[in-house]
Write a structure and sequence with these properties.
heterodimer; A: Four Helix Bundle (Hemerythrin (Met), subunit A); 10 helices; disordered N terminus; B: mainly alpha; two-stranded antiparallel ribbon; 4 helices; 6% strand; elongated
């Protein structure tokens, strides 16, 4: 029988005492984690695909949902997400440069590149928070029908979207938010919308220029626009005003869309956030000279792997949420 | 640690002088791919939307293929898989590829089935 460690272990690759995969323990464990995490993300994205294929005819069109850029007014689909993607790829590059400088034992260069990486990550997380805030706030508002479908509004002459607040007429009605201290202890109500259902319905009837757009995607790949008569007919089904998005309902369309958006980008954003925290820890260690004393910068390489993985996941999230 | 770097990309078509140069080269390539994706996503050429291949629009196929291209270069050059032993590389890459293709196939197949049920079944889902 072979002993566990022999002097001729070089010949016997799997006999122990050497590194058959040519990678250190720490790096190998990081790869284990990355592979399993990749499978988790794949599970989420596959579930997203499942729900989307299930409701393929009514799924929201991403270009119409994510149209804002901070500090700019107007309709700019994709621009901001493309910017976020670029920031993340850029911070990935500074990370590789840090690893490369680490191999050459250049402490000062590692410090600079790690710093830039942290900044890039912070910009990305900030952008994502802004993206969430915009998504939650919503922009045009919509009505929801008894069946849980979303009805959006379009101006007939220009084809632009119409916000419910624009055409709703103010009615003299008293609206009180039901809270647990006023009603039955188990009943509660979400914050009141800026306009009530009656106000939107009255405003719609008063303004012949407004049409309803349903969730259904037609053959041209656009949402179906109803005629004035169809719209008035459809309006009878409406039961509430929806403004913005939460986990229960959202003004963009299918409820699952917002759920998956929050869940997947949230999970990814949390990865970026923890990546930034880990990067800061390593950054401080580099400044303190921990790795200089240790004689190698493998820790930088290991967090680098994690950081690139976060970038890798974003590439897929970007495609399946915003492009496809 | 892998100090040796393979400095060729595109199957040896492009050879860089140093690892730093290669990193910038890959960044330029990834940026170009992203820019192409964004431009296609904004303008949506009618030809690519109108043509469908294997049940999906040609444009979406292009997006997915470009994504895989980007993923390849991130993993190979940023995560240094190009410099690792082939056994480690295969263990890392083929495990998820196999499991994910299986999962995606099953889920999308099932979803299409449910879509048909919703569409042709006797229950009204929009009321």
């Amino acid at each position: 029988m072979d002993t566990t460690v022999t002097t001729d272990s070089e010949e016997n690759v799997w006999g122990g005492g050497n590194r058959p995969l040519g990678a250190s323990y720490g790096k190998l464990m990081m790869w284990f984690f990355i592979v399993s995490d990749a499978l988790t993300f794949s599970g989420f994205l596959a579930a997203y695909g499942f729900s989307r294929f299930k409701f393929i005819e009514t799924w929201p069109i991403a270009d119409e949902v994510f149209t804002h850029v901070p500090f700019f007014h107007g309709n700019y689909p994709m621009i901001y997400v493309a910017f976020m993607t670029f920031i993340l790829i850029m911070s990935s590059v500074t990370m590789v440069l840090a690893v490369d400088a680490g191999h050459k034992m250049k402490q000062n260069k590692v410090i600079i590149y790690m710093f830039l990486t942290v900044i890039g990550g912070a910009i990305f997380v900030g952008s994502q928070a802004w993206e969430w805030a915009t998504f939650i706030k919503g922009d045009y508002g919509a009505l929801e029908t008894k069946g849980g479908r979303i009805l959006q509004f379009v101006k007939a002459d220009s084809g632009e979207r119409a916000a419910v607040g624009e055409f709703a007429v103010a009615l003299k009605e008293e609206r009180v938010r039901n809270t647990r201290d006023k009603g039955v202890w188990y009943t509660d109500e979400a914050a009141l919308t800026s306009v009530s259902l009656n106000e939107v319905v009255a405003g719609f009837k008063a303004d012949p220029n407004i049409l309803i757009r349903t969730e259904t995607i037609n053959e041209e790949g656009e949402k179906t626009l109803l005629t004035r008569e169809q719209s008035l007919n459809k309006l009878k089904d409406a039961v509430r005003v929806v403004e913005g998005a939460n986990l229960v309902r959202n003004e963009y369309g299918s409820r699952l869309f917002a759920d998956f958006f929050f869940f997947i980008t949230g999970f990814h954003g949390f990865h970026v956030f923890s990546g930034v925290v880990i990067n800061i820890i390593i950054f401080l260690n580099v400044i303190l000279g921990t790795y200089e004393k240790r004689g190698h910068y493998e820790m930088v390489e290991k967090v680098g792997l994690y950081w690139h993985f976060v970038d890798l996941v974003w590439v897929f999230v970007f495609t399946f949420f915003y492009l496809v | 640690m892998a100090h040796e770097h393979k400095l060729e990309i595109f199957r040896g078509l492009l050879k860089f002088k140093s690892n730093t140069q290669k990193i910038w080269g890959v960044l330029i390539f990834l940026s170009i791919v992203t820019a192409v994706e964004v431009v296609l996503g904004i303008f949506k050429p009618a030809f690519l939307i109108g043509t469908s291949f294997l049940g999906m629009k040609l444009l979406n196929w292009i997006f997915i293929i470009l994504t895989l291209v980007k993923a390849y270069y991130i993993a190979w050059d940023f995560m240094h898989l190009r410099d690792e032993k082939s056994s480690l590389r295969r263990a890392i890459v083929w495990t998820p590829i196999f499991l994910v293709s299986y999962l995606v196939f099953i889920l999308l197949f099932e979803a299409t089935y449910i879509y048909d049920i919703f569409k042709t079944g006797f229950l009204a889902w929009e009321f």
